[in-house]
Amino acid sequence: MRPHGYYDGVTEDVGYAVSFLVFVTWHSTVWYSTVMGTVTTHTTRNNPFTILLHEAGRDDVALVGGKNAALGEMLRALVPHGIRVPGGFVVTVAAYQHFVESANLSRVIAHELEGLNTQNVADLAERGARIREAIQGAAFPAELEQEICDRYREMKGEYGRVVDVAVRSSATTEDLPGASFAGQMETFLHVVGESALLSAIKNCFASLFTDRAISYRSDRGFRHTDAALSVGVQRMVRSDLATSGVMFTIDTESGFDKVVLINGSYGLGEFIVQGSVIPDEWIVFKPALEKGVSGIIGRRVGEKATKMVYAGATTESVPVAESDRRRFCMTDEEIRELALWGVAIEKHFSERAGEYQPMDIEWAKDGETGELFIVQARPETVHATKEGNVYVEFRLLEKRGEPVVHGIAVGTRIATGPARVIPDAKDIHMFKRGEVLVTGTTDPDWEPVMKIAAAIVTDKGGRTSHAAIVSRELSIPCIVGARDATTFLKNGEQVTVDCSEGDDGFVYRGALQFEEVVHRLESVPETRTKVMLNIGSPDEALRHHRLPVKGVGLGRIEFIIAGHIKIHPNALINYARLVADTSDTRTREIVRMIDELTARYADKKQYYVDKLAEGIAKIGAAFWPHEVIIRFSDFKTNEYRTLIGGELFEPQESNPMLGWRGASRYYHENFRDAFGLECAALLKVRSEMGLQNIVPMVPFCRTPEEGRKVVSLMEEFGLSRTSDPSLKIYVMCEIPSNVIQADAFLDIFDGMSIGSNDLTQLTLGLDRDAGGLAYIGNENNEAVRQLIEQAIGACRRRNKYVGICGQAPSDYPDFAAFLVRLGIESISLNPDTVIKTLSVIARAERGRGGKTNSILYRMWNNQ
């Protein structure tokens, strides 16, 4: 007998280049036949009651259901290429139908579901319970029971021990591109012995008629009589001794298709799917995997407070040791292997479908062997079906106070409604349409009320939990892992759930006003002028990846330092000295805060490098392969002082705007090593993460001499144009000296990005931190315009990059038209102004934006 999970049959029939099916319900024959070939419905005894899992394949959905067909196909096509899938056998749909017919259950089912209104939760519960009781009380036909036991004994003989198995439902109307049925039917883990196996299979049959499954089918328009079930019996992967999780081959919130999202936690996989834990999270960049580099561009440590493990013949929940909670549950090498598998599985499905098909995959690590396994794979059901030419933005229109609670944002929407705190699913009858559901976690039993909720907030869970998956499918905002939501939110109080701001979601008190803006991207004009984006927080980057832009003109790492790192770099560099200074109360408090944020790092400096690199990489990946210009830190001294430990290393300045900032910091002995950490982060992004579209930019460089010092220091820290000819270095053009000595600066740098905000204040002698003088002038002032015209002219004459990343083109459409007429190479805009400014740029390019008196413009057009 072949080893389960290591299918060694010939592969000419299912080669690696041939990809797997997109599942469809068995009664959708026309669509299914296009992708898979004709489906034959099996109802006779000639069809087997059981088959080995690797004998199932792409033509067998009607016999083995979507889940088992996927597993069987992967065993055939992908296991020979190194992807591990545990084997086993299938109790087929023919067996289910034989069981139902022999016990005369069809009449019971039809009678109970006649005239059902799924909105009546109590009536639904009563009818569903009666159907399940009838199924569970029926006896297996003798010949079916014998065949199941024989298959199980074969597994026992193969492994030479008592076999523990996972028993998984696999319905024919499951895992479709437009409807996932996520968690609707039951799975039973660590099933040991023939009696327990038979009971688990019968319970799987019964789970076809749980309240949530009945309700879901009704809402999605599936006929209950068309639903049928097979059961997969797989060798258990001993993840109770290790880890397990879920992997999506797409960013679950934004639909960005160049990343793999992986969630992981300790123990059996049930908790992570249910959302009972806050898992670890990794984001892996697919193009970097193709280059053979790590590609891990984002990580988040979850609490992982509990895990599910074996307890004799059953399972139990146990706490996770504090030391294990604080560290990642998987190594970078394991994450990279999983991501490579995910990409291969996605390719397999997509080729069979004839179109791009992102995947939702479950994985497990065996604690006895250390091996990774894929235990399920299904099409992703939300972004795969969205219209591609629509870009939707949600924006709060009111000032907000401090959030009541916050957690991980699911989706990008905003919703308001009265909070309804329900700790247990038995009380869901209390829930009313339009309320915000607040609970610890959800499972499929909550589905009848989730579909009528305005929003959902859970204390636990991650992006791949049940609450997250169903909320995306229902297109309602959801916040998972909010920790204290059930404590701080009160029944009946009006709240606003805001998931529009990136990775973090916030709950505010009150029903705040918001707007939904829908852009039809096919109506957005093409422009010769390159339109780029100004990005602050990396959390924004993936959310805006579908905007019609060509890269990032300004990525501000100050947002990463303030929002994600939170510690002054010199406090990390001088950590040992701070620890030794035990006499000072404030220093002890700073050390405590550093220890709390950097618990996983013995080398505190590496914390700074890693966090900064991951933030930069997210921005770079979202707009790859276009240029992403990342400005080195441009905090002023008063801003640096707000970071943890900042007051120990920053002077007090009366006018920080014109003080120790930008280039002058980098080569100074008091900041030189901190600048080295920024260079190390950029080097890591370009080399280890494979994002060579990242272009560093030096801000506030007062003189060419400063420019030479900074470039020399960058080379010393590894960012060398000699060793890496693809590396470019730009300088901000924001001081009049940058324009007056443009050629000297362009001898040093590869291009200029005009910072119109600072250039305006330094030209007109205004302090933009002092708003009282704003009436005197702005970027439209003639003096400022003349300087900008000179800067653009110098760069064009030297054939070097020139763009603008200041606020002016976003604020003043006529200013954008002015820049186009000067022949600027790129205009970088704030996200909320991209669509409308593109039209202004297109009109200016067509010559309808007015004429210019620019001598340089006339000269260039005559060349």
> How much of the residues is beta strand, in percent?
15-25%
Detail the poorly predicted runs. Answer: 1-45, 175-182, 848-863
Main sheet: strand order? 23-24-25-26-27-28-29-30
Q: Biggest β-sheet: count, sense, barrel?
A: 8 strands, parallel, barrel
Q: Distance N terminus to C terminus?
A: 78 Å
Quick one: overall form? elongated
Q: Please state the structural category.
A: alpha/beta
Q: What's the tally of helices?
A: 33
Number of strands: 30
Specify Rg, calculated over alpha carbons: 30 Å
Could you write a compact summary of the structure shown?
The chain is of the alpha/beta class. Helix content is 37%, strand content 19%.
How would you characterize the overall build of this protein?
This protein has 863 residues and is α/β, with parallel strands linked by helices. 37% of the residues lie in helices and 19% in strands. The chain has 33 helices and 30 strands. The strands form six sheets. Strands 23-24-25-26-27-28-29-30 form an eight-stranded parallel β-barrel, surrounded by five helices. A seven-stranded mixed beta barrel has the order 15-19-18-17-16-20-21. It has a six-stranded antiparallel beta sheet with strand order 9-8-7-6-12-13. The longest helix has 22 residues, at 332-353. It is elongated and about 95 Å long. The chain starts with 28 loop residues before the first helix and ends with a helix. The relative contact order is 0.07.
